[in-house]
Amino acid sequence: MHTVKHENVIYKFEPEMEPVLEVESGAIVHFESNDCFFQQLKSNEDVINEIDFDRVNPATGPVSVKGAEPGDLLKVEILAIDLADEGVSVCMPGHGALPDEVRESTVRVIPVKDGYADYLGLKLPLAPMIGVIGVAPSDEEGSFPTATPWRHGGNMDTRDIRKGRTIYFPVAQAGALFALGDCHALMGDGEVSVSGLEIPADVLVRLSVLKGISAPWPILETESETMVIASGKDLEEAVRHANSAVVGVLSRALQVQWEEAYILASLAVDTRISQVVDPTMTVRAAVSKEIISTEVFLENLKK
Ligand code: CA
Ligand code: CA
User: Fold this and answer.
1) How much of the chain is helix, strand and coil, in % rounded to 5?
2) Which of 233, 230, 206, 208 is nearest to 219 (CA)?
3) Of 97, 113, 165, 196, which alpha carbon lies 20 to 30 A from 126's?
4) Helix axes 235-254, 258-268, angle to 10 degrees
């Protein structure tokens, strides 16, 4: 098995990146994922403003997958997310969904064991997820800090990105150039304070190339649904991007008028908030596999 060590990180998803590893399509890769602060916060007494912000939001990688070319999809099966035994969560004045109400920067180191996070005397069930995951953007779109989610993926902070799920990325550069980081032991939809339970993790994924299928945004497959994960400068724009993609797919796949597909989306597609605290905001629009299979969904994607 291939391993990408935790010191091999990027802080931007860029059109041109030097891969640290090249693998065949279908390879399983182990990523050592850092927490979003690169493990700089270790106790409740640590001061957020004293950490090195140049080392925030590292993503481990990038990995080049042979045969991936622009216009393909990179299929990423999430096989395991094994967490460290302690995480950290924070809030800061001027950040999050309630920026004016935070009076002091606060750090809370939170133990994780036996399937629970132990916080405020509460046992919170773990739901490990990957916050930052993506591929190199197109030349036209240019570079994105790892903190910013967009069409290439990035900091989507979507709690459905977890073990057993499959996520598909639009390939924009030869080799795809895949990286991930920013795992959370758990997070609520919205991520309102600006952090999940940030935690180092060992992540196993299988990386495969699907030739000749392009996508406007990352697509996530769960046991029961297919989702478009889209971002925007605000929630309205993110909702528009996600639903525009879904309605186009439904119209083509079911061979119905666009307007009929739009009405179907209104009846049966769920738009859920992923996060409202990053430089762009993220939602996912979810379609039941009883309406359309993921395979047919992917076949009817167009850029
Ligand atoms: Ca994040
Ligand atoms: Ca995070």
Assistant:
1) 15, 40, 45
2) 230
3) 97
4) 120
Q: How far is the CA of 36 from the centre of ligand 1 (A)?
A: 7
| Interacting residues of 34 by C-beta distance below 8 A, sequence separation 6+ | 6, 9, 58, 60, 181, 200
Q: What Cα–Cα distance (Å) separates residue 139 from each residue in 7, 17, 64, 68, 171?
A: 27, 12, 17, 16, 12
Nearest ligand to the C-alpha of residue 275? 1
Q: What's the pLDDT score for residue 1? A: 86
Distance CA 69, CA 86 (A): 39
Assess contact for 225 and 158: CB atoms under 8 A.
no
Q: Which ligand is nearest to the CA of 276?
A: 1
> pLDDT tens digit string along 108-161?
999 999 999 999 999 999 999 999 999 999 999 999 999 999 999 999 999 999
Query: 67 CA distance to ligand 2 centroid (A)?
Result: 31
Distance (angstroms) between ligand 2 centre and the Cα of 244 equals 28
Task: Give the number of the ligand closest to the Cα of residue 147.
Answer: 1
Section 278-303 average pLDDT: 95
**Cα 280 to Cα 231: distance, rounded to the nearest angstrom:** 6
CA of 106 to the centre of ligand 2 (A): 15
Q: What is the pLDDT of residues 193-216, one digit of tens each?
A: 999 999 999 999 999 999 999 999
